[in-house]
Specification:
Blueprint (H helix, E strand, L loop, with lengths): L4 E4 L2 E3 L4 E4 L6 E4 L2 E3 L4 E4 L11 E6 L4 E16 L6 E15 L5 E3 L2 E3 L3 E5 L5 E3 L2 E3 L3 E5 L5 E3 L2 E3 L2 E8 L2 E3 L2 E2 L4 E9 L2 E3 L9
Parallel strand pairs: 1-4, 2-5, 3-6, 4-7, 5-8, 6-8, 7-8, 8-9, 9-10, 9-11, 9-12, 10-13, 11-14, 12-15, 13-16, 14-17, 15-18, 16-19, 17-20, 18-21, 19-22
Length: about 200
């Protein structure tokens, strides 16, 4: 598996690190397939493309793709969940400008670690489930947009723990320890925020 590959319709396992990959396209694309990083790392050579937009690490596209067990580093957007959604990401450490960007629907991101410096996780789309993750070394831990997304049992150690905007989200049993603000709610409707711990935040 090499920089720029598209992995489609199968199960793939890394046997070595990939990269640093040029920032002209995704380091790897996973299309309706499963990729086990097997403890290895996918690296980008820069957080920016030549056109000065964020580079992309591992992009999950089409539907029902999976990414697990490794790291993505040095990318503008470390892991991007796009296409038709229904993807699953587990046990991934992603660091760059933004750790994880969820742009589609019905995805699950779990037991993973997102680092900034801008944000650990940005969640768009609908009916995504973001649980048992950690976010650190970023301005924003989790930024939740879209509709009917669930963020539960996540831990943030960021300046702004969880930012919530949109419709119908469930934000429950998260820890936003330290930082400046635990949870920010802005332009949000019918949001359920329960049993979160913002202890140690300045406000």
């Amino acid at each position: 598996i090499q920089c720029g590959d598209t992995l489609a319709n199968g199960d793939y396992v890394l046997t070595a690190d990939v990269g640093p990959c040029p920032s002209t396209g995704p380091a790897l694309t996973v299309s309706s397939a499963k990729l086990n990083l097997n403890g290895f790392t996918v690296r980008c050579e820069s957080v920016y493309t030549p056109n000065m937009v964020y580079s992309q690490g591992v992009v999950l596209t089409s539907s029902n793709s999976a990414l697990s067990n490794g790291s993505v580093s040095g990318c503008g957007n470390g892991v991007v969940l796009g296409g038709g959604g229904g993807h699953t990401v587990s046990y991934i450490n992603s660091g760059g400008w933004i750790g994880f960007v969820v742009n589609s629907c019905r995805n699950t991101v779990r037991y993973s670690n997102g680092k900034g410096p801008f944000a650990g996780f940005i969640v768009n789309g609908k009916r995504n489930n973001i649980h048992h993750n950690t976010a650190g070394n970023a301005s924003y831990g989790l930024s939740i947009f879209g509709e009917d997304n669930v963020a539960s049992q996540n831990d943030t150690t960021t300046s702004f723990g969880i930012y919530v905007s949109g419709l119908g989200h469930q934000i429950e049993n998260n820890n936003t320890v330290g930082g400046l603000v635990g949870i920010i709610v802005e332009n949000a409707t019918n949001v359920d925020i329960t049993q979160n711990d913002a202890s140690g935040a300045a406000r």
